[in-house]
Amino acid sequence: MNQFSIIKVFIIMLAIAVGSCSKTEDIVKPDVIHWNYEHPDWQTQGFSECAGPIQSPVDIQTNSTIKVDLPNLDFNYSAFPIKIIDNGHTLQVNNNGTNRVVYNKKTYDFKQFHFHYHSEHLLDGVASDMELHLVHQDPSSGALLVVGYFLKKGVANSLFESVLSNWPKQKETEVSTTTSIDLNSLLPSDNRYYTYMGSLTTPPCSQGVMFFIVKTPIEVSSAQIDQFKAHYDHNARPVQPLNSRLLYEDIL
Ligand SMILES: [Zn+2]
């Protein structure tokens, strides 16, 4: 390889890195510009896509959803050791893609999950105590598929406990643990959902994210909610206008 081809390869790699950044920000989150939930007008802070027409979260108005029989979310999950980071906006557990979800004959690799207090999506104008986001990515196109669950006050959840008890002491540093978790133990047996096309709910608010909000909530204890809240008592983006989008409801 001569000097010019090395430079050329470097430029191409740089272009790929920059190009992939916008799609995977929720996964990588290099915080070039600081943002917060006190001033969620992120479009005025250098994140122009946050003012786009297909943003998340939204208020799910159940009387105006389109009720149809939609494909199942087929989770292909198995146990993996917790790699965890407090990224300054939420608590996040990362995975290297050993878990998958199949939707409409397409496979999406599981990347990470994280939490919001209170829920970001509303159901008929009402927020749930918390919301869990399972983030998946199509390895070929880079398209994101996020499955959201409402967490509500009830019995303590052992998986949530494992995650909370591994909260890293230092922010923005991923910690590898020997604690193993299996997301199968978390998911309700009924995975029927609401779905729509939206965006990342954090800057840069990249659009084109397939959002699924499962109808059956997951129970966590009030002590567990308080434990999360002690770190993040408001990390939920306000709901965004639905505009011309349709919201589908899987009923069968
Ligand atoms: Zn989220």
What's a quick, concise take on this entry?
Its EC number is 4.2.1.1. The protein is 16% helix and 35% strand. It is α+β, with helices and mostly antiparallel strands.
How is this fold's topology laid out?
Elements: H1 3-28, E1 59-60, E2 66-68, E3 73-76, E4 80-86, E5 91-94, E6 100-103, E7 106-117, E8 122-123, E9 126-127, E10 130-137, E11 144-153, H2 158-164, E12 175-181, E13 193-199, E14 207-220, H3 222-229, E15 248-250
Parallel strand pairs: 1-8, 2-15, 11-14
Antiparallel strand pairs: 3-6, 4-5, 4-12, 5-7, 6-7, 7-10, 8-9, 10-11, 13-14, 13-15
Pfam families: Carb_anhydrase (PF00194)
Catalytic activity: hydrogencarbonate + H(+) = CO2 + H2O
Enzyme class: lyase
Notes on the protein architecture:
The protein is an alpha+beta fold and 252 residues long. It has a single domain (3-250), classed as Roll (Carbonic Anhydrase II). It is 16% helix and 35% strand. The protein has helices at residues 3-28, 158-164, 222-229; strands spanning 59-60, 66-68, 73-76, 80-86, 91-94, 100-103, 106-117, 122-123, 126-127, 130-137, 144-153, 175-181, 193-199, 207-220, 248-250. The strands form 2 sheets. Strands 2, 3, 4, 5, 6, 7, 10, 11, 12, 13, 14 and 15 form a 12-stranded mixed beta sheet that branches. Strands 1-8-9 form a 3-stranded mixed beta sheet, with no helix packed on it. Strand 10 and strand 11 form a beta hairpin. The longest helix has 26 residues, at 3-28. It is globular. The relative contact order is 0.23. Residues 9-26 have low confidence and may be disordered. It binds zinc ion. Zinc ion binds next to strand 7. It catalyses: hydrogencarbonate + H(+) = CO2 + H2O.
